[in-house]
Amino acid sequence: MENVPTRSCPGPPQLENGFVQDLGTVYLARSHAVYQCQVGYFMSGGDGTVRCGEDLQWEISSLRCLSEYTARAPHSEGHLRDTGCEFCVTCGMAESG
What we know:
The chain is an all-beta fold and 97 residues long. It has strands at 8-9, 18-21, 27-28, 32-37, 41-44, 49-52, 58-59, 64-67, 72-74, 80-82.
């Protein structure tokens, strides 16, 4: 007979600039939740799926929602210049709003 989990993880953790699709009320061990990023952001570090582990902790790894906007960084004279990076968070210049 297979061991059926009866204990559950707390709700999935918040993901900055993202949300859980079809948020459930109970997440048993070995169940999954799927994140989606808000408009203007894209998923990085996975496909958005996270798992409730046997230890009742979420296995979220390096999942993040990154900005789609082009980075701009201050030039040494205080002017803005294009850094050449496609995404601002790739350059470490996360923008808010």
